Amino acid sequence: MTDSRVSYKIAFSMYIAAGGDPNREFDSVEAIYTELNTLLEKTEYTFKIEELKLDITENGTYNYATDGVNGYKPVRLNIAVPTSGGGGGNTGGAFDWQSIGYNSNDITAITTPISDGIAYAKEIYDNWDINNTSANSMFYADNRLKYFPAVDTSNLLDVNDMFCNSKTLEYLPALDFSSVDSRFLSTFKGCDSLKEIKISAVSSQLANTDSMFANCLSLQNLEIPENLKSSATGFMFLDCTKLLSAPMFDTSEVTMTHSMFASCFSLTSIPLYDISKVTDAPNMFSYCIKLTTIPQLDTSSLGDASNMFSYCESLQSLPLLDFGNVYNVFCMLDGCSSLVDVAGFKDIGKQEYFTGPLGLNSATNISVDSMINIINNLYDRATAGYTNVAEIQCYQMNNLTDDQKAIITNKGWTLLT
Question: Which of the four pLDDT bands, split at 50, 70 and 90, describes residue 233?
Fold first, then answer.
């Protein structure tokens, strides 16, 4: 860590750039910048500086340090502004974060510039009732909310829609939700500007987490306790386009995962969730464009798998999945253009009324071995006496032998070209 003093002139210009009042009078201005630990490439560094709203100048060494071998270190500027009368309010970088409940460790993590949002945060902090048990829709679509103060949330029972559609909210402290009973519905839905959410504690009660983090378009880092026990995860992470990793939590009682991770563009993998009771998973991973594989999920109760992996264009492999109860695979693998290795879908087609086709036309590079795995795991509908049509379609069918194609038709499946 490196601290450097900068001149009055530079510091004042940085204060103005950070949203300070240009009409305030000061005896002096001291600014300290601190190099962050992470080394970045130049493009990432430039983005980070812009994100921190620092004034980039080619010849200024006050706002960054460079290393020609290892990359660039962005810096965080903290401005101490002693006043000599005039102005007032919460417009400067000298705001006392501890006045809204943050400790010194919290303060070092805050990179957003001070703004009028602080005054509102102070209002919330000063009027917070620790005995209140409901925050249902408390800050719904609140366009004044930018910084949420570090208040005691441990007595809240209901946080349904608490911050829903608060599109200007940028920073939250770690939240203690240890008393929340079951009401997590849409808690953070539509918080477009939040990049990080940390929940420090939850209760052991079964909770509805439908749409809990949906449409958090800027969310990158998410920490939730693993003992969060969910009963419903539909749309839970929908459109979290920048989420880098999926958190592990208890899904053993979940029955519906509709669009749970749909359009999570940045996810490359998911944990081994317990989805043994899930019956409906349409669009569960659709448009997870960086997802390369999934773990050995227990799909033995699954019925609706329509669009489950549609347009997962980086998906390369799938483990053997139990599809004995699946009745709908419509567009399940559409757009999976990178799919090569498939272990098969055990007993797929066992349900007499089956909606398909099992379409693999997008998987132009799927291996012949994978096709054989799929064929061998097709349920024998002919022996079962089913008369309803079940269809399979694959770009690579022409690479199968006549005997292999005969296995498909002899099992009562219709082969589409």
Answer: very high
Is the preceding omega at residue 357 within 30 degrees of 0, hence cis? yes
Over the range 191-222, which residues count as b (16 or more CB within 10 Å of their CB) and which as e?
bebbbebebebbbeeebbbbbbbbbbbebbeb
Contact 408, 396 (CB under 8 A): no
Alpha carbons 169 and 185: distance in angstroms, whole number: 18
Q: Which residues pair with 322 in a beta bridge?
A: 346
- Mark residue 211 as left, alpha or beta (left: phi above 0; alpha: psi -120 to 50; beta: remaining): left
Residue type at 397?
M
Residue 26 DSSP symbol: B
pLDDT tens per residue, range 255-280: 999 999 999 999 999 999 999 999 99
Torsion of CA 324, 386, 332, 261, to 10 degrees: -40
Q: What is the pLDDT of residues 64-106, one digit of tens each?
A: 333 334 444 444 444 443 333 222 233 334 456 677 777 655 5
H/E segment holding residue 11: helix 8-17
299: buried, middle or exposed (CB in 10 Å: 19+, 13-18, 0-12)? buried
233 bridge partner residues: none
Q: How far apart are CA 148 and CA 159, in angstroms?
A: 15
Beta strands in 209-353 (DSSP E): 221-223, 229-232, 317-318, 321-322, 341-342, 345-346
* pTM of the complete model: 0.75
